[in-house]
Write a structure and sequence with these properties.
heterodimer; A: mainly beta; four-stranded antiparallel sheet; about 0% helix; about 50% strand; B: mainly beta; seven-stranded mixed sheet
Protein backbone atom coordinates (compact mmCIF):
# COMPACT_ATOMS: atom_id res chain seq x y z
CA UNK A 1 0.00 0.00 0.00
CA UNK A 2 1.19 3.51 -0.68
CA UNK A 3 1.78 5.80 2.24
CA UNK A 4 3.70 8.91 3.17
CA UNK A 5 4.76 9.56 6.75
CA UNK A 6 5.95 12.86 8.14
CA UNK A 7 6.65 11.96 11.72
CA UNK A 8 7.38 15.51 12.84
CA UNK A 9 4.08 17.24 13.48
CA UNK A 10 5.59 20.54 14.59
CA UNK A 11 9.10 21.95 14.59
CA UNK A 12 10.16 25.23 16.14
CA UNK A 13 13.53 26.81 15.45
CA UNK A 14 15.18 30.17 15.87
CA UNK A 15 16.05 32.19 12.82
CA UNK A 16 19.32 31.20 11.11
CA UNK A 17 19.19 27.65 12.42
CA UNK A 18 19.23 24.80 9.93
CA UNK A 19 16.23 22.49 10.00
CA UNK A 20 15.46 19.15 8.35
CA UNK A 21 11.96 17.93 7.63
CA UNK A 22 11.67 14.17 7.36
CA UNK A 23 9.60 12.23 4.85
CA UNK A 24 9.35 8.45 4.60
CA UNK A 25 7.29 6.78 1.91
CA UNK A 26 5.99 3.33 1.07
CA UNK A 27 5.25 2.09 -2.41
CA UNK A 28 5.40 -1.14 -4.38
CA UNK A 29 5.79 0.71 -7.64
CA UNK A 30 9.25 0.93 -9.20
CA UNK A 31 8.44 4.19 -10.93
CA UNK A 32 7.14 6.96 -8.76
CA UNK A 33 7.49 10.65 -8.07
CA UNK A 34 8.00 12.55 -4.86
CA UNK A 35 7.01 16.13 -4.23
CA UNK A 36 7.38 18.77 -1.56
CA UNK A 37 4.81 21.53 -1.15
CA UNK A 38 4.78 24.54 1.16
CA UNK A 39 1.51 25.82 2.66
CA UNK A 40 1.92 29.33 4.08
CA UNK A 41 -0.77 30.81 6.37
CA UNK A 42 -2.62 32.13 3.30
CA UNK A 43 -3.60 28.53 2.53
CA UNK A 44 -2.50 27.73 -1.00
CA UNK A 45 0.02 24.96 -1.55
CA UNK A 46 3.16 26.05 -3.36
CA UNK A 47 5.07 23.45 -5.35
CA UNK A 48 8.74 23.26 -4.33
CA UNK A 49 10.28 20.23 -6.00
CA UNK A 50 9.62 16.98 -7.83
CA UNK A 51 11.96 14.00 -7.86
CA UNK A 52 11.49 10.79 -9.83
CA UNK A 53 12.44 7.38 -8.50
CA UNK A 54 15.30 6.95 -10.95
CA UNK A 55 17.08 10.11 -9.98
CA UNK A 56 18.72 9.89 -6.58
CA UNK A 57 20.86 12.94 -7.10
CA UNK A 58 20.41 15.42 -4.30
CA UNK A 59 19.26 18.88 -5.23
CA UNK A 60 20.02 22.31 -3.88
CA UNK A 61 18.08 25.46 -4.60
CA UNK A 62 19.30 28.43 -2.66
CA UNK A 63 18.75 27.70 1.03
CA UNK A 64 16.72 24.59 0.24
CA UNK A 65 18.15 21.14 -0.32
CA UNK A 66 16.63 17.72 -0.73
CA UNK A 67 18.13 14.32 0.11
CA UNK A 68 16.52 11.38 -1.68
CA UNK A 69 17.58 7.91 -0.50
CA UNK A 70 15.79 4.93 -2.01
CA UNK A 71 17.56 2.54 0.37
CA UNK A 72 15.70 4.07 3.30
CA UNK A 73 12.63 5.25 1.33
CA UNK A 74 13.23 8.79 2.48
CA UNK A 75 13.04 12.19 0.83
CA UNK A 76 14.14 14.72 3.42
CA UNK A 77 14.07 18.48 3.05
CA UNK A 78 16.60 20.79 4.67
CA UNK A 79 16.34 24.54 5.04
CA UNK A 80 19.66 26.20 5.74
CA UNK A 81 19.80 29.43 7.72
CA UNK A 82 16.05 29.47 8.27
CA UNK A 83 14.10 32.71 8.06
CA UNK A 84 10.78 33.81 9.54
CA UNK A 85 9.24 33.66 6.04
CA UNK A 86 9.92 29.93 6.01
CA UNK A 87 7.22 29.46 8.64
CA UNK A 88 4.57 27.27 7.04
CA UNK A 89 3.23 23.74 6.86
CA UNK A 90 5.29 21.56 4.57
CA UNK A 91 3.85 18.52 2.83
CA UNK A 92 5.62 15.61 1.25
CA UNK A 93 3.62 13.72 -1.41
CA UNK A 94 3.94 10.58 -3.52
CA UNK A 95 2.59 9.83 -6.99
CA UNK A 96 2.83 6.34 -8.48
CA UNK A 97 3.21 5.76 -12.19
CA UNK A 98 1.15 2.57 -12.27
CA UNK A 99 -1.67 3.88 -10.15
CA UNK A 100 -4.71 3.64 -12.37
CA UNK A 101 -5.88 7.05 -11.30
CA UNK A 102 -2.66 8.57 -12.63
CA UNK A 103 -1.81 11.90 -11.12
CA UNK A 104 -3.24 11.05 -7.72
CA UNK A 105 -1.08 12.53 -4.98
CA UNK A 106 -0.75 10.78 -1.63
CA UNK A 107 0.10 13.35 1.01
CA UNK A 108 1.82 13.04 4.34
CA UNK A 109 0.25 14.64 7.37
CA UNK A 110 2.40 17.73 7.06
CA UNK A 111 5.02 19.32 9.30
CA UNK A 112 4.33 22.74 10.74
CA UNK A 113 7.53 24.74 10.86
CA UNK A 114 7.72 27.81 13.05
CA UNK A 115 10.78 30.03 12.70
CA UNK A 116 11.09 32.55 15.49
CA UNK A 117 13.09 35.77 15.18
CA UNK B 1 -1.33 36.44 -14.14
CA UNK B 2 -2.31 32.80 -14.59
CA UNK B 3 -3.62 30.93 -11.64
CA UNK B 4 -6.45 29.21 -9.84
CA UNK B 5 -9.23 31.20 -8.23
CA UNK B 6 -11.40 29.70 -5.53
CA UNK B 7 -14.46 31.41 -4.13
CA UNK B 8 -15.74 32.17 -1.66
CA UNK B 9 -12.88 32.22 0.82
CA UNK B 10 -15.26 31.43 3.70
CA UNK B 11 -18.59 29.62 3.47
CA UNK B 12 -21.18 28.64 6.03
CA UNK B 13 -23.63 25.83 5.57
CA UNK B 14 -26.93 25.33 7.31
CA UNK B 15 -28.30 21.93 8.20
CA UNK B 16 -29.69 20.14 5.14
CA UNK B 17 -28.32 22.67 2.70
CA UNK B 18 -26.23 22.06 -0.40
CA UNK B 19 -23.44 24.52 -1.05
CA UNK B 20 -21.23 24.96 -4.09
CA UNK B 21 -17.56 25.92 -4.07
CA UNK B 22 -16.19 27.59 -7.16
CA UNK B 23 -12.87 26.81 -8.82
CA UNK B 24 -11.69 28.58 -11.98
CA UNK B 25 -8.29 28.30 -13.67
CA UNK B 26 -6.75 30.25 -16.54
CA UNK B 27 -3.67 28.08 -16.87
CA UNK B 28 -5.14 26.09 -19.79
CA UNK B 29 -4.70 22.93 -17.74
CA UNK B 30 -6.58 19.80 -18.69
CA UNK B 31 -6.69 18.13 -15.28
CA UNK B 32 -8.39 19.51 -12.20
CA UNK B 33 -8.71 18.16 -8.65
CA UNK B 34 -10.57 18.77 -5.41
CA UNK B 35 -8.97 18.02 -2.04
CA UNK B 36 -10.20 18.20 1.51
CA UNK B 37 -7.84 19.19 4.33
CA UNK B 38 -8.66 18.54 7.97
CA UNK B 39 -6.56 19.85 10.88
CA UNK B 40 -3.40 17.81 11.41
CA UNK B 41 -4.03 15.73 8.32
CA UNK B 42 -2.75 15.74 4.82
CA UNK B 43 -4.92 16.42 1.82
CA UNK B 44 -7.39 13.79 0.68
CA UNK B 45 -8.67 13.57 -2.88
CA UNK B 46 -12.41 14.06 -3.37
CA UNK B 47 -12.83 14.16 -7.16
CA UNK B 48 -10.68 14.72 -10.19
CA UNK B 49 -11.25 15.45 -13.86
CA UNK B 50 -8.89 14.96 -16.76
CA UNK B 51 -11.08 16.40 -19.49
CA UNK B 52 -14.29 18.31 -20.02
CA UNK B 53 -17.43 16.31 -19.25
CA UNK B 54 -15.44 13.62 -17.48
CA UNK B 55 -14.65 13.20 -13.79
CA UNK B 56 -13.75 10.41 -11.41
CA UNK B 57 -14.24 9.77 -7.72
CA UNK B 58 -11.30 10.07 -5.41
CA UNK B 59 -10.88 8.54 -1.98
CA UNK B 60 -13.64 10.43 -0.17
CA UNK B 61 -16.29 11.27 -2.79
CA UNK B 62 -19.35 10.39 -0.70
CA UNK B 63 -21.50 13.43 -0.02
CA UNK B 64 -19.89 15.49 -2.79
CA UNK B 65 -20.62 16.10 -6.46
CA UNK B 66 -18.81 17.90 -9.27
CA UNK B 67 -19.27 18.97 -12.86
CA UNK B 68 -16.83 19.85 -15.63
CA UNK B 69 -18.75 21.66 -18.34
CA UNK B 70 -15.87 23.97 -19.23
CA UNK B 71 -12.14 23.41 -19.22
CA UNK B 72 -11.62 26.37 -16.91
CA UNK B 73 -14.19 25.48 -14.28
CA UNK B 74 -14.59 22.62 -11.82
CA UNK B 75 -17.20 23.45 -9.15
CA UNK B 76 -17.67 21.23 -6.11
CA UNK B 77 -21.05 20.80 -4.41
CA UNK B 78 -21.10 19.71 -0.80
CA UNK B 79 -24.45 18.02 -0.38
CA UNK B 80 -26.53 17.51 2.74
CA UNK B 81 -25.40 13.88 2.64
CA UNK B 82 -21.94 14.98 3.75
CA UNK B 83 -22.40 14.83 7.51
CA UNK B 84 -19.07 16.33 8.46
CA UNK B 85 -18.35 19.03 5.89
CA UNK B 86 -16.34 21.37 8.09
CA UNK B 87 -12.91 21.49 6.47
CA UNK B 88 -10.58 23.45 4.22
CA UNK B 89 -11.17 22.69 0.53
CA UNK B 90 -8.44 23.08 -2.04
CA UNK B 91 -8.76 23.00 -5.79
CA UNK B 92 -5.77 22.12 -7.97
CA UNK B 93 -4.91 21.73 -11.62
CA UNK B 94 -2.13 20.23 -13.70
CA UNK B 95 -1.13 20.38 -17.33
CA UNK B 96 -2.53 16.93 -17.85
CA UNK B 97 -3.29 13.94 -15.71
CA UNK B 98 0.00 12.17 -15.21
CA UNK B 99 1.91 11.09 -12.14
CA UNK B 100 4.85 13.37 -12.77
CA UNK B 101 2.91 16.59 -13.23
CA UNK B 102 3.08 19.09 -10.38
CA UNK B 103 -0.30 20.31 -9.29
CA UNK B 104 -0.98 24.00 -8.82
CA UNK B 105 -3.33 24.99 -6.03
CA UNK B 106 -5.82 27.73 -5.31
CA UNK B 107 -6.11 29.65 -2.03
CA UNK B 108 -8.82 27.39 -0.67
CA UNK B 109 -12.33 27.71 0.75
CA UNK B 110 -12.98 27.24 4.43
CA UNK B 111 -16.39 25.66 5.00
CA UNK B 112 -18.09 25.69 8.38
CA UNK B 113 -21.44 24.54 9.76
CA UNK B 114 -23.87 27.11 11.14
Amino acid sequence: AQKVTQAQTEISVVEKEDVTLDCVYETRDTTYYLFWYKQPPSGELVFLIRRNSFDEQNEISGRYSWNFQKSTSSFNFTITASQVVDSAVYFCALSEALDNQGGKLIFGQGTELSVKP
Amino acid sequence: DGGITQSPKYLFRKEGQNVTLSCEQNLNHDAMYWYRQDPGQGLRLIYYSQIVNDFQKGDIAEGYSVSREKKESFPLTVTSAQKNPTAFYLCASSTFRAPNQPQHFGDGTRLSIL
